[in-house]
Write a structure and sequence with these properties.
The chain is mainly β. The chain has seven helices and 33 strands. The chain folds into three domains: 2-156 and 572-650, Immunoglobulin-like (Sandwich), CATH 2.60.40; 165-342, Cupredoxins -  blue copper proteins (Immunoglobulin-like, Sandwich); 358-559, Immunoglobulin-like (Sandwich), CATH 2.60.40.420. The longest helix is centred in the N-terminal third of the chain and has 20 residues, at 2-21. 50% of the residues are buried. InterPro entries: Cu-oxidase-like_N (IPR011707), Cu-oxidase_2nd (IPR001117), Cu-oxidase_C (IPR011706), Cu-oxidase_fam (IPR045087), Cu_oxidase_CS (IPR033138), Cu_oxidase_Cu_BS (IPR002355), Cupredoxin (IPR008972), CuRO_1_LCC (IPR034288).
Amino acid sequence: MENLVTSLVIYFSLLVFAFNVHVMAQWPKGTSTRFYDFKVQTKRITKLCNSKDIAVVNGMFPGPVVYAREGDRIVVNVTNETPFNITIHWHGVRQILSCWYDGPSYVTQCPIQSGQRFTYEFTMVKQKGTFFWHAHVSWLRATVHGALIVYPKTGVPYPFKTPHEEHIIILGEYWVKDVVQLERATIDSGGAPPPADAYTINGQPGPNYNCSKQDVDKIDVVPGKTYLLRLIHAGLNTQNFFAIANHKLTIVEADAEYTKPFTTDRVMLGPGQTMNVLVIANQPIGRYSMAMGPYMSAKGVQFQNISSISYFQYLSTNLNSLSLTPTLPSFNDNLAVKTVMDGLRSLNPVNLSKEIDANLFVTVGLNVQKCQSKTPKQNCQGLNHGVMAASMNNISFVKPKISVLEAYYKKINGSFTEDFPKAPLNFYDFVNGAPNNIPNNTQSLNGTKTIVLEYGSNVRLIFQDTGTVSTENHPIHLHGYSFYVVGYGSGNYDPKTANFNLVDPPYMNTIGVPVGGWAAVQFVADNPGVWFMHCHLDIHQSWGLGTAIIVKNGKGDLQTLPQPPADLPRFEAKSVSTSRSISPVTEKAKSTGQPVLPQPVNRSGRPVLLNGYLIRLLNNENLKFVSIGQPLRSTGSGQRAKIRPLDSELK
C-alpha cells in the first residue's frame, strides 16, 4: 500500500511539474516529456597503445542515445563533474522559441562551470530523423557526443520499407594528446594543429591502427534483410568518405530530412552532417569492411591517411575469415563529393518564394594575420611567420565574455555589434586570385559582428569559398534553422549564370561549400533569437570562421523569444580565457558536496513548488525517466543502444 501511495505521489507530482513548466502558450508543449540525466565526467581509457583521461557523458564513449518521437519534449539535466567548462548543443534541432537551450558557448549561454548543473528543455517541433548532441566548448566534442534519434509520430510509417534493424554509426577522430590542451597549444603557436592519430567508428579505431586489432565495431546481419544505418559525423577537423565493401548505400535522409532515394557506392560526410542509408545484405556470407577514409580538399594540410575499419558481418561467418575492404575515393576526389551532392533532392516538392527580403553574400576562408608577438618563434608559426586565422567576409569572430544572446536580450552594450557586412569589403577573383590579385587588406579583422534579420524575412545566403590561403570545402552549419540548398557550383558566384533549384532542393542544416566554389541556401527567418553560423571544422571555428545571426521578435507570444531560464549559467569573470576562440577552463569545484538541483521554473520564471520527495527522486542518479511513469530500457553499463528501442517504449 505504501508503495502504491508513493507511486501515485510521484505520478501526480510529475503531472503538476509538467503542467507548470509548460503552461505558457508561447512555448511548444510536446506530446510526451522525456527526461534524461547527463553526468559529464572524466574517464581513463586506453587506445592506440596509450592511456589518457577523456571527458565523457555517463561513463560512455560515444555517449548515451537520446530517443524521442516527433512532437516530444526533451528535458536533459546536465551535471558537470569535469574540471572543464561544458555546454551541450543539440545539433540540427531548430529550438523553436527555445534559443536559450541551443548550447554554443558564449553565443546562447555561458558554459556550465565545474560542479554546476543546467537543464536543457526543448520540443521536437515538426522534426524527426537522425540528430546528435555534442559539447560546444573547446574541442571537447571529440569525446563528448552521442546520437539523438527522433522517430515519427506513433502510427506514421517511414516513406520507405521498414528495415529489419537500425544501427547508429558515429564517425569520429581521436588524438592521443588531450584535445583541450591541443587546441590551446595550436592557438598559442599561431600555426596549424596536428592531424588526428586515428579515425574512429563508434569510438573504435579498428585493426589498421597500432594496438587496435580488437578495438573494432561490427554489425551482425542476416542474408536478404535490409538495414538502416544512421550515419553521424562527430569528428573535428576532417571530412570523410564512408563505404561498405561490395554493398550499395541508398540515401533516404540527409540532416534529418527525407530525400528521394539515391543509390551510390559511397557517401561523404563532413563534421556536423548526418545521413540515413539503407543497405541490403545481398552478398555471399562473409565479413565486409565498413571503411572511413579522409576527404581533404585543401592543399598542404596534414591529415590522417589510414582508414578506420568496422565490420558488416553476416551471421555464421567464420570468425577467422578475412574481411573484404571497399575502395574509397582518393583523398582529394572532388567529383565523388559532387556526385553525392547532385543526388540529394527533397522527397516532396517545395514551394519556395522567389521574392527575397535579405540577400547576403558571405565569403569563407582562411587568413594569415601579422605577427605581433614578442616571441614570434613560439607564437607565429603560421604561413609566412604569421598567425593563422579564418573568417566570414574577412571578419574573424571573437566570442565575448558574456553570451551574445544574453547581452542582446538584456540590452547589455559592448559585447557585440550589429554591423556584420552583407558583402565582402573588397571583391576580387576569390578562387583564382591568389596570390597576385588579392588586396593587401585581406588579413582578417577580429570582432563580434552580427547579422540582424527581421522576423519573417525571406533570406538567401550565398557562401563563396576563397583561395586567400587555399581553397577548401567548408561544412557550414546554421543553428536554429534548416535551409534549402537551392544551388551550388564551381568558381566565383555569378548571378547571371547561376541555376537555382526551387522545386525539390534538399533541406539541410550543414552545407559543404564546394572547394573553389559557392553554395546558395534559402530560409525564412521565423525563429527569434541569436543563432550561431560557423564552419564545423573545429580548427576553423577556433580561428574565427563564424558569425551570429540575430532574428528579431515578431508579433505576439508565438513570435517572441521568451525570457531566460532561472538556472541559466552565469558569467564568472575569473574563468574567461583571453584567447580569441578558446572557451575557458575552470578550476575544479572546491565543494565536495553534490551540486544543488536547480529549482524548476515555469516559462514566466516563477518557481514551481515540488514536494521534497520528488526533489530527492529527480536527484537520484540511478533513476531515469523517458516519459511519465516509464523508465528507459537499460542496455547495460557502458553499452550503446544501437538498435531501435521497442515501440512500446516510445508511446
